[in-house]
Amino acid sequence: MHSTYRIYQIFSSLAVIAGFPPFWLYSRLTGRHRDGLSQRLGRYSPVDAAHIQGSPRFWIHAASMGEVMAADALIDHLRLMCPGCAIILSTVTEHGYRLAEQHMSDKVYPIYAPIDFIPALSRTMRIFRPDILAFMETELWPNWIMTAHGMGIKTVLINGRISRRSIGRYLKIRPMMSELLNHMSGFSMIQAGDAARICQMGAPVARVTVNGNAKYDRLLNQTNEMDRQSVQWLLDRLTGRPVFLAGSIRQEEYRMMITVFEDLQGFFPDLLLILAPRHLGRLPDICRELSARGIGFQKRTDIGSGAITTPILVLDTMGELKDFYRLADVVFCGGSLAPKGGQNVMEPAAWGKPVLFGPHMDDFLDARDMLEATGGGRTVADTRALFENVRLLLTHSDQAAAMGSRARIAVESNRGAAKRHARFMVRQLTSSDRC
């Protein structure tokens, strides 16, 4: 065992032991993170676990809502390939857990993920006894990997993504990462760049393959569901009114979007701006900024299914942004003018919308490259360029429609990735464990 991992093991254990009492008190006082607290410590009910029937047994770890959605399409293919299998789906966030519980409980057993603490992990793995533990995207937790290895559980990385921003941090601890990755059975990566970077970190080249992005299959499934009525009431009220949607905005991007909107109003007096912050904690700042500028706005939760009477709608709910994309004439995806690595530009692209994004797309390079290659998306260097592009597309609806069609084509060109990742997982089973 490499000394770097020993140091991590010691400090992660000390951090949990020292940090849990104040965290527990904070949870009790505020009510935050109270749900699933016992599960996070590895206290799952063996009685409940006994209800999980089937073989082989897959455990998929998806950190948050986005990863859970990507896992959904993959899970459907696993169930087709292994009709008698059992699937446990763990997630870190409350929103991810609720999504799995409310919409996927007929095909998975949802749990809150245990923290990266060996006693909690050992107890959890003894209870659920998975044949394969699959981490989604970037979830490489040292104690998870080493504990599973010690118990004879195979581990794989699925829909793997290693960004240009993060590779430098990994390389600083390359000896530890190399040891961890050598204990894993395989790596099913999104694109060639991700594969190259995980090999730089020490993953055995022979165990690495490229299979595309499973999120795109899920997005196409969503937009193909023609009976969705979640925002039909708003769609009915927007006839002829142009809509500019700024989704997953981060840091100071809300100020940039409001400024661009004010400039656009001179050309489009009835323009509706939909502002959707990536984190709801940013809502008070957005509301204060709009009030200070004297711009009328409504929150999504305030209007229900009523009328939109203001020029700006602030989306203050979780999980609805993907539906609101269908309303937009032009979309900007945030986290890209602010240096935060970007957001998933393929969500609006799946709805056939023209997509604009800033230069900071390090976490979604494959999506950016595909959109730009087809002409369905465009990089804007700053707010001035954003204003000019939005004005152009709102003025020329034929150009916007053509750009949106090309964006949809980019998503469809990646169809089948979820099936390839699922097949990769099945292949990791020994002949005696196969479906």
Please outline the helices and strands.
Elements: H1 3-30, H2 37-40, H3 46-50, E1 57-61, H4 65-81, E2 86-91, H5 94-103, E3 109-112, H6 118-128, E4 132-136, H7 142-150, E5 154-160, H8 164-172, H9 174-182, E6 186-189, H10 192-200, E7 208-210, H11 215-223, H12 232-236, E8 243-249, H13 253-265, E9 272-277, H14 283-292, E10 297-299, H15 300-303, E11 312-314, H16 321-324, E12 330-333, H17 346-350, E13 355-357, H18 365-374, E14 377-379, H19 383-395, H20 397-412, H21 417-427
What labels would you give this structure?
Rossmann fold; 2 domains; alpha/beta; 7-stranded parallel beta sheet; 14 strands; 435 residues
Your description of this structure?
It is globular, with a radius of gyration of 23 Å. The chain folds into 2 domains: 29-213 and 416-427, 3-Layer(aba) Sandwich (Rossmann fold), CATH 3.40.50.11720; 228-412, Rossmann fold (3-Layer(aba) Sandwich). With 435 residues, the chain is an alpha/beta fold. The protein contains 21 helices and 14 strands. It has a 7-stranded parallel beta sheet, with helices on both faces. The mean pLDDT is 89. It has helices at residues 3-30, 37-40, 46-50, 65-81, 94-103, 118-128, 142-150, 164-172, 174-182, 192-200, 215-223, 232-236, 253-265, 283-292, 300-303, 321-324, 346-350, 365-374, 383-395, 397-412, 417-427; strands at residues 57-61, 86-91, 109-112, 132-136, 154-160, 186-189, 208-210, 243-249, 272-277, 297-299, 312-314, 330-333, 355-357, 377-379.
